[in-house]
Every structure is written in C-alpha cells, then in structure tokens.
Specification:
This protein is mainly beta and 349 residues long. The protein has one domain: Beta Barrel (Porin), CATH 2.40.160.10. Helix content is 10%, strand content 53%. The protein has three helices and 18 strands.
Length: 349
C-alpha cells in the first residue's frame, strides 16, 4: 500500500507539473507571417526608358522612396518570426528584394545585398505599464512605414522618404493612463542598423494621446519633430494626418511639410484613398531633384484598394508638381510636373 501510495503521489505531482508547463506554453505565442509585393509602373507624362548611361542608370520617377522602377518590377518578400510571452519576446523581420535593400541605404555592412534584416529586437514587459525593447526597430516617426501591407498608398510620401527609416538602440514604453503613453529611447546614429561606427548617439521621444502622436528625435546630424495621427470622421470615412519639420546641423538645410490621407470605405473589399502632400526643402537638402537650393513639391496620389482574401490589388495615379523643373516630359524637355500610374499586388500571409 505504501509503495502504491508513493507511486500515485509521484504520478499526481508529475501531472500537476505537466499542466503548469502546458499553461506556460499557452501563454507564449510563436507566429510566422509576412508579405510579398510586386508592381507595374509607367510614366504618363514622361519617358519610361533608361535615359542615363548603362553605368549610371537614371529612371525618371518621383523623388520619394520605393515603387520607382519602370515596367514590371519587384518590391520585396518580407518574412517575420516573432515569439510573444507574458514577460519576454522577440521579433526577427527579414526582407529580400529592392524595397528592403533601399530601406537600409545607410547600413554599414549589408546595405548592398538583397538579403537584409529589417527589424531584430527583443523585449521585456517589466510590468503592465513598462516595456523595454532593445535591438533594431523601424522608426516611430511618420505616418507611413517600410512594409506595404501597413500603408494605404503603395508609393510613399516625401515626408516618409526623407525622415528616418530605422533605429538600433534601447527604448522604454510607458503606459501612463488608458489614453496617454510615453516612449523614450537612446539609439545609434539614425539608419545605421548593424552597429555604431561613429561613436555618436541619438535621443528619441514620443508622446501619444488617443492614437495621436507627437514625435521628436535629436541626432548628431539632424533634429526632427513630427506629428502623426488620424480620426474616424464616420464609420466609413477616415482622415489621416502627418506633419514634420527637419533641420540639419551646421546650417545644412532641411525640410518641412504636411500630408492629409482621406480614405473612404465603399465595401468590405474596396476602399478609395487620397494622399495630398506639400513638401518644401530648405538649403541644399536635395530631395526634390531640381538642383536648386530651395524648392517645393505638391504631390497628389489617388489609390484604390481591392481585397481578394489575402491578396490586395492597388491601382494608383500620382501627380507630382514642383516649384521648379524637376522632371522631364516625353520629349526630354525639363518640366515641373510628372504624372505616373502603377498597379501593385500585395499578398499577406
């Protein structure tokens, strides 16, 4: 009987331990997801062939990032593995293709390869109101992001293209109230993702209130303040807002601008959205491509979004109108405007 009791107690204890381990596993969540995007792009009012030399190709397109290649072109393949526990977790975000490579243009080691790390960080939920994150993470500034799945428009804005893309460092997120949040961080020089080759550091801050965010970053080479937000005007009409001001150190110029993102949902499968952006550069910033020290551009982008299960089709018409000659027309004559069309296919898994 004593032996039987001992064996029964051991089995019961093992059962309790197994149940506890099962509960711990259920609290942790491993996910694997990502996306693939491709597109076709053509100029309506300008040439579409390679007008530069073979060694120095020049494709005529807006001065903003991504979606600038002519004809049928590749975006990127994005693969994201994440592990979420009650206290700790990580994200490993890998990108393959032109869009991903362009996003890490300033990376010291791997920016020229097509196989890169977009994000790689670990986090610790110190408490319900404090979270620490360390590693490489996409920027907290701006309305748009690198992944096309999180943007409504497929082409990107000037404000996004010339603000930070990524940071590597340590940040702390604080939930102050149900509506109020605060983030503070210390990071390497902006967009230097793998390590710190300069010995300098940047400081970042974000204050959030009801999904409206005021962002600030001070980097050794620049300072930027940015507002990002949006409002559900009705159940079917959303209005996004972005405004930013950046100034370079040593009187190197900078930029300022704002963008509105009205979007109307017609059905569960179709939404129509507009991006109306004004962007002004100061000094020799060189973003718009006019070659002049001070220029501005007004860019209007109309995008439709058709959803078919996990596939999204986005036809898009864009008109860029600059204050000075920044483009070429079909006769290769300098002009202030460029009209273009693209259609993108984005699959999210």
């Amino acid at each position: 009987m004593k032996k039987l009791f001992t064996i029964s107690l051991a089995l019961l204890t093992s059962c309790f331990y197994a149940q506890e381990e099962d509960l711990e596993l259920k609290e942790k969540k491993f996910t694997f997801n990502g996306s693939v995007d491709v597109y076709y792009r053509t100029n309506i009012t300008g040439p579409n062939d390679n007008i530069g030399t073979e060694a120095d190709p020049l494709y005529l397109a807006p001065g903003s990032s991504f979606a600038n290649l002519p004809g049928f072109a590749l975006g990127m393949a994005n693969v994201i593995a994440s592990y979420e526990g009650e206290k700790v977790g990580f994200v490993a975000d890998l990108v393959f293709g032109p869009r991903g490579t362009d996003a890490v243009f300033a990376s010291p080691m791997y920016s020229s390869t097509g196989n890169i790390v977009n994000q790689l960080y670990a986090y610790w939920n110190v408490s319900k109101k404090v979270k620490l994150t360390m590693g490489n993470f996409n920027t907290f500034l701006g309305y748009e992001v690198i992944s096309p799945t999180a943007n409504f428009n497929y082409s990107t804005s000037y404000l996004f293209s010339y603000g930070p893309f990524s940071h590597t460092g340590l940040k702390a997120d604080f939930t102050l109230t149900d509506d109020l949040s605060l983030m503070v961080g210390v990071m390497n020089d902006t967009d230097l993702t793998e390590f710190n080759p300069t010995g300098d550091y940047a400081a970042g801050l974000q204050l959030g209130y009801k999904s409206q965010f005021l962002n600030f970053i001070y980097d050794p080479s620049f300072m930027e303040i940015d507002f990002t937000g949006g409002f559900d005007v009705t159940k079917t009409f959303f209005l996004g807002i972005n405004a930013a001001y950046l100034t370079l150190e040593d009187n190197g110029g900078g930029f300022a601008g704002g963008a509105l993102y009205p979007q109307y949902t017609f059905s569960d499968t179709f939404t129509l959205g507009l991006r109306a952006e004004y962007f002004m550069e100061d000094g020799d910033f060189g973003a718009i491509g006019t070659g002049l020290p001070d220029s501005s551009v007004f860019a209007t982008t109309l995008t439709g979004s058709f959803t078919i299960n996990d596939l999204t089709i986005k036809p898009e018409i864009r008109l860029d109108s600059a204050s000075d000659d920044a483009f070429l027309d079909t006769d290769l004559v300098p002009t202030k405007t460029l009209g273009s069309f693209l259609v993108a296919a984005i699959y999210k898994f």
